[in-house]
Every structure is written in C-alpha cells, then in structure tokens.
Amino acid sequence: MAATPIQPFSTEETQRILQHLQQPAVFMNMTRGWPVLHWTAEHLSACLGEKLIRFRLGRKGDVNTPLFETQCSYVEAKLVHFLSWTQGQSGTDVGPFSEFSSSEYWAYADYKYIAILFQDQPSMFEDVKWSDFGFEGRNGRESTLWIGTEGANTPCHLDSYGCNLVLQVQGRKRWHLFPPEDTPKLYPTRIPYEESSVFSQVDVLHPDPRRFPDFQRARVHTVTLQPGQVLYVPRHWWHYVESVDPVTVSVNSWIELEADDVARVSEAVTKAVVCAIKSAPSDDNADDWLNPTEEGVASHNENMQYVNLAVRACAQRQKALCHGKLTRDPRDTRPAKRDSSGQIRKKRDSTGDSVPFSVPFGPHLISVRCQQEDSPEAREVTPKDLRFKSSRNGACTSQEDTVSSEAAGRSEAAPAVRLQQERRERSPDLTQCRARDCADETPENSSEDCEVSRHAIITTNDLLDCLVHPDIIARVTELLLERHTGSHRTTAPSQL
Q1: What is the CATH number of domain 11-257+363-367?
Q2: Cα separation, 21 vs 18, whole angstroms
Q3: Nearest-5° angle of CA 136, CA 112, CA 235?
Q4: pLDDT tens digits for range 294-334
Q5: How far apart (Å, rounded) are the C-alpha atoms in residues 465 and 460?
Q6: Cα gap 275→229, rounded to integer Å
Q7: CA distances from 434 to 15, 213, 348, 459 (A)
Q8: What is the pTM of this model?
Q9: Runs of H (alpha helix) within 236-299
Q10: Where is the composition biased (Acidic residues) (predicted)?
Q11: In degrees rounded to 5, what are phi and psi of residue 126?
C-alpha cells in the first residue's frame, strides 16, 4: 500500500494562511495523491457514459464586448461526442456538435455540480479532498466541475458570496484577476442578471478605451494555472477565466464566509429591484436580461419574502455576535454560490494570534502579484522584490511557476470605522454610469460627439446600473438593517 503523500502545509497551517491571505495565491504540491487528478475528459467520459451534459458554445474571434451566457448557443451532448468534436475526427459521431465547426466555436460545460452529475456514483465525491485545506468533510459533493476547449471562457465578474478554491486537473487555464478596489474601473452591471454574480461591461482582453476609459487604470493580476495547482481567489476579486489548451478540466469549491450574511441582504434587494423593473412592459425592455443559469423570474411577493428573510437572518446573527452568543448548527450548509454548500471560515480578526503572521510565500505558495511589465525586475525577480507593484498603464503580471515570495500583501482587514472612507475612495461618481465619453476631449472624441452623448436616451438598463450600483445597494442594505434592528450603529460592508 502506497504511503500517503506529505503535504507542504498541515490543515491547521493552511487554514491560518487562508485567514490571512489578502490577494490571490497558488498552492503548489497540495494535491499530491488526490484521485481527482485522474479526472481527465476521457476518464470522465468513461464514468458518465450515456449521460447528457449541457455545453455552452461561443464563436471564436476578437470583439470589444463580453460574450455573456445569454448570447451563447447550447447543446445537450455526451462527453464522447465532445471529445470526438474537439479532436476533429472525420466520420465519427459528434452528436449535436455537428452543427458547429470546432475551428470557429469553443465549447464549455461549466457550473456542473458534482453532487448532481455523479449522484448515482457517490464514491467519486471522495476523489476531491478539500479536507487537506482544513475544511473537514468537504469533498466533491460541495464542488463544481468545468470542462472546456481552447478559448472557452467565463465573462469577467465577481462572486458576491464567499471565496473560491480552484483545482486545475487537465490542461491550463489563464486567470485575469482584479482587486475589489478597482470595481469602478470594471464598470459593473447586473444585466444579464444572475444571483451572486456581478458582471463587468468590459471585454478585458480587448477593451474599448472610448467606452471604458478608466479600465486602463485597472490593476490586472494574471496567472496560468497548471494541473495539480490550486488557486485561491479572495472575496470579491474580479476574474476573467479562459482555457488555453485543447481540453481543460477543473474543479472548484466556493467557501462561505461570515460576511455573506450582509451580502445576502444586498443580493435580495438587487434581485427585487432588477426583477421589478425588467419585468415591466417597456419599449426597451425586450432584451434577454435573465442569465440561463437562473430558473425563472420570481414574483415581487416572492422577492420581498427573500428580502425579509435575509434581513432577519442577518440581524439575528449580528445580535448574537454583539451578545457573544453566536452558535451555528454544524449541519448548516447554506449556499455560498448557487447551491454549492460551504463551511464557515473564522473571521480574520478572530484567529487569536498574539504575534503578527507572515504568509509563507515560497516554492509551495506563489503570490499572484501585480508588477511592472516593462521593468527589469519583471523578468528577473528575487524574493525581496516580491511586492504588489502597479505598472505605468495599470497592467500587472504574476510570477507564475518560477517565483517565490516572502510575506507580502496588505495588512489585516481595515476596522469598521474605515469602511465609509474606503467606499468613498473607490466609488465612481454616479454620472460615470455608462456615459463617460466626454471625460477627455480628443480628436476622436470631439465636442460634437460629446454633445450627442449628453443628450443620449437613458435606457432602462442605464437606470438599473445606477439603481443597483454597488455603493447604492450597500447603503440601502445598511438602512434596512438599521430599520429592522432599530439601531443606527449597524455598518454593512460594501457589496463589492
């Protein structure tokens, strides 16, 4: 019987690292011996047999707008069809993929819950061992599977709830990440609407500088994830993800955080506002605004029930925290991202550390950093140089595969008294919602163009971008919690 591989960090050490990490990081050598590393597309095809899987297909090519899920084509196919299609085997059965050329389209089976996919093979849940990261009992049951071809991508977005652990199994994926402080530069929108996802209006690979001038100052952190590596994505970090190899497979798990209680109130408010306005008959309300991942449009009565439930749950939790009586049923597995259940992680300020903790960056933990692209140190980096550095044009790169690091990153989470100040610092003027073309008058953006922009028709979606702007929703959340508790001391973190 083979010996169990020794992990570079114990479960206790890993939990402490996760509690202190303030930026994305890649865990190396933590998944040695995990059976899930054998989950190639070919292996999964043999396991799933005749089971049909829904694939999202998008046309390849450079555009200046994101390709949202509402704009994609969809097929239900077996994995064997998918593999034959990706390999371009003439004369083989590719099923419904026959309507699409593999040279013109990419395909993506995304957000596939392992608990559903392998409900008749529950033993496969044990192949995923998130317990090695200190999440006792967490395995494939609380995880999601992603299978794609080269070019398959997820539009740039942030997840409203939790943090994210992502294991690359087959092929490579390139991640483009942006810190929460850059939210105004990402031009957030809730159309298409999906609960717990805030999308960016920017095509981050081919941005339109005229429509989105502030994006050029966004600080992108880029890393290409290799098989066996695990990427940690902190709460509210924006990310655009693309497959760079012919076939890629990855597994992730969203980890619930205590801050999600307030975020659920914000999400309930957002849903009520978006559904109420987009469900109303209007000349400009004919767009495909609901993401295919959503099961349908809930009634206003249902949405208001969600608001009240979220407010009561959050208020009860805050009250318990204030009185030191917080307890949680260990069976409580509320969703951290859609219906992927999560385990509560301790608050960053409740670790009980009596001395400062330095995150042990090095060969087993790689910081995904922001660094000047054109400087000499971008090509040759020593450990003492590993710090977050913004480049002159706002672009940043990571030291993937070769770098090591000493303690880096920001200090512990800021006290509540700084929340309002931080929000003001990162909040855009609401006049920046969509209409920014007149920021700087140039030959390409003449005064004549500006005059047209000033008198452009405001659409329903323009109105929504302002009404459900992250800072507006955060303030509404504060007011609702204050109203419910009768206290004006409740401070809700910004939704973003």
Answers
A1: 2.60.120.650
A2: 5
A3: 55
A4: 989 999 999 999 999 999 999 998 888 777 765 443 333 33
A5: 9
A6: 39
A7: 41, 11, 36, 10
A8: 0.80
A9: 260-278
A10: 440-450
A11: -70, -10
